[in-house]
Inverse folding.
């Protein structure tokens, strides 16, 4: 039994030893792994679009991802199997002891009133001695069996607890990755809109160039060059949409949805300035360290090393030192990762403020251009360019807002102990 649950635990940990590659979350690119969440290469021929927000993605990963379900199910089965095995073995031992206690009691009653010097009494006495010796043996075995059963229960409880910690960590990593990809899909939508603004500008320029070509004002090469730029840009827009759909397919797989489903972003919750103002580096760092799976893992290794330590056994002291060094490295790694996440939020907040200022300036420029256009001071093309500048500025603000949204979302996960670190797991 002991060997079986250890092999089960080892295989599950190897299967679910999910470590998100450095940079994968921040870039929104899914990583192939043994969790059943490999990157989608192309969209299905026929697919269903499911719109989800960040909270919906998190809940779906927790409830439907195959790896998370497997770890939780196995943890639950370890609990139940240890309880059942302990109950069954205890009942069997108690039954045998009760039988021999009854036999001894009957034997003593049979001996009452007999002549202690008679052969019958001596025969009964010899049989009673055998019964009592066997009862003593059973009692000793029962105590030993109970100790073994308690040890097994403790081992199974530890295994179940470890699996639940592993499940929570894997679930957090997957949910964070899926959420970040969902935000990336939305951000790529803004990029697509920006490219479409540029495409519209090129179409307007092409219309002018074609007229100029007919009048002999420009050569064919100049017209062809702009036309090629326009065609390549249109192709890039199509490629961008395919990328969004592929990411949506990857999010669906990470959520445990079927292969014919693509997840696209629904409306996100508003990020309030007050939440950003409440960020407390030291307090939040302490929370991140407390919740870190990596730190817990290394602390557990230190406990195991101390339990195995014996000054008379070579290598055990070195094992303790190695485990302590690994724990210190893990703490440093978590601090560094948290520090980077904290600074990213601050930087994104500064960038968003700058983009909003640029939008305000573009809107002022458009007001000026509108007055000039109505008075005939500037051309329609210049007026349209001022309109495009406002559209681009708005899209830049939305993109910067999403970058801040992504950074803050990762910061919130960091407080829960889900961080991208460089320390070996």
């Amino acid at each position: 039994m002991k060997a079986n649950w250890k092999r089960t635990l080892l295989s599950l940990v190897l299967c679910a030893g999910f470590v998100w590659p450095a940079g994968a979350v921040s870039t929104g690119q899914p990583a192939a792994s043994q969790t059943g969440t490999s990157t989608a290469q192309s969209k299905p021929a026929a697919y269903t679009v499911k719109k989800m927000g960040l909270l919906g993605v998190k809940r779906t990963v927790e409830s439907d991802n195959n790896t998370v379900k497997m770890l939780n199910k196995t943890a639950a089965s370890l609990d139940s199997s240890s309880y059942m095995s302990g109950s069954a073995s205890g009942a069997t031992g108690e039954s045998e002891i009760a039988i021999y206690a009854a036999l001894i009691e009957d034997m003593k009653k049979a001996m009452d009133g007999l002549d202690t010097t008679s052969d019958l009494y001596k025969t009964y006495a010899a049989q009673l001695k055998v019964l009592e010796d066997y009862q003593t043996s059973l009692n000793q075995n029962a105590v030993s069996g109970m100790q073994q059963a308690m040890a097994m229960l403790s081992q199974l409880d530890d295994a179940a607890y470890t699996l639940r910690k592993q499940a929570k960590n894997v679930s957090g990593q997957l949910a964070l990755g899926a959420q970040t990809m969902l935000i990336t899909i939305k951000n790529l939508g803004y990029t697509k809109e920006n490219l479409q603004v540029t495409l519209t500008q090129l179409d307007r320029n092409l219309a002018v160039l074609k007229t100029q070509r007919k009048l002999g004002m420009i050569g064919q090469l100049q017209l062809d060059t702009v036309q090629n730029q326009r065609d390549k840009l249109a192709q890039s827009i199509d490629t961008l949409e395919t990328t969004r759909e592929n990411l949506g397919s990857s999010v669906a797989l990470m959520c445990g949805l079927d292969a014919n489903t693509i997840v696209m972003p629904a409306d996100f919750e508003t990020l309030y300035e007050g939440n950003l103002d409440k960020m407390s580096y030291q307090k939040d760092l302490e929370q991140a360290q407390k919740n870190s799976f990596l730190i817990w893992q290394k602390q557990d290794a230190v406990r195991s090393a101390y339990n195995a330590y014996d000054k008379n056994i070579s290598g055990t002291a070195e094992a303790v030192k190695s485990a302590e060094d690994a724990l210190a490295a893990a703490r440093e790694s978590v601090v560094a990762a948290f520090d980077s996440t904290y600074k990213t939020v601050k930087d994104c907040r500064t960038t968003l403020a700058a983009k909003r200022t640029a939008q305000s300036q573009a809107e002022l420029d458009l007001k000026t251009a509108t007055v000039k256009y109505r008075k005939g001071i500037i051309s329609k093309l210049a007026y349209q360019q001022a309109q495009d500048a406002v559209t681009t500025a708005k899209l830049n603000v939305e993109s910067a807002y999403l970058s801040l949204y992504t950074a803050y979302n990762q910061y919130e996960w960091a407080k829960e102990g889900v961080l991208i670190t460089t320390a070996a797991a």
Residues 270-425 form a domain with the Outer membrane efflux proteins (OEP) fold (CATH 1.20.1600.10). Residues 1-41 have pLDDT under 50 and may be disordered. The beta strands are 48-52, 261-265. The first strand starts at residue 48 and ends at 52.
